[in-house]
Amino acid sequence: MNARSVNIIICGVGGQGIILASNVLCHTAFLEGFDVKKSEVHGMAQRGGTVITHVKYGSKVYSPLIAEGTADFLLAFEKLEALRYSHYLKDNGIAMVNDREIPPMSVLIGAAEYPTDIPKQLDKHCRLYLVKAEKIAHDMGNIRVVNVVLLGVLSRALQFSTDSWKRAIRSNVKARYVDLNISAFHKGRDLVQMA
Question: What CATH number is given to the structural domain containing 99?
Answer without folding.
Answer: 3.40.920.10
